[in-house]
Write a structure and sequence with these properties.
The chain is built from four helices and no strands. With about 100 residues, it is mainly alpha-helical. The chain has one domain. The longest helix is centred in the N-terminal third of the chain and has 24 residues. It is globular, with a radius of gyration of 13 Å.
Length: about 100
């Protein structure tokens, strides 16, 4: 898999992590918490594995972040009852990227 393809794939995976974290914070269905936590764990594990495949420069990481935010906008259409600020999604995405970069 080429680096651009890996960026797209990684962005989708991290986007899923971010969306599930937003859902966990803002859901009004507490019975969903266990499921959301397990999904976050699974997607995070996949993101870690995918992240290790390449060396990422700052342009790559910025491109990943931009694509993550696009993914969040796309996924948020499926959750009209969840309200969040884009800054919150950006903060979570940056946090995950920083954790993966360590």
């Amino acid at each position: 898999m080429g680096k651009n393809s890996a960026i797209n794939s990684l962005s989708k995976i991290i986007g899923n992590v971010v969306m599930h974290k937003l859902l966990l914070r803002h859901t009004n269905k507490p019975e969903s918490n266990d499921f959301l936590k397990s999904e976050i764990k699974e997607y995070s594990s996949n993101a870690f594995e995918k992240f290790q495949e390449f060396n990422w420069n700052s342009n790559d990481l910025n491109n990943i972040k931009i694509k993550i935010l696009g993914r969040i906008r796309q996924l948020s259409k499926y959750y009209p009852d969840i309200s969040y600020k884009e800054e919150e999604a950006t903060s979570i995405a940056e946090e995950i990227i920083n954790e993966l970069s360590e």
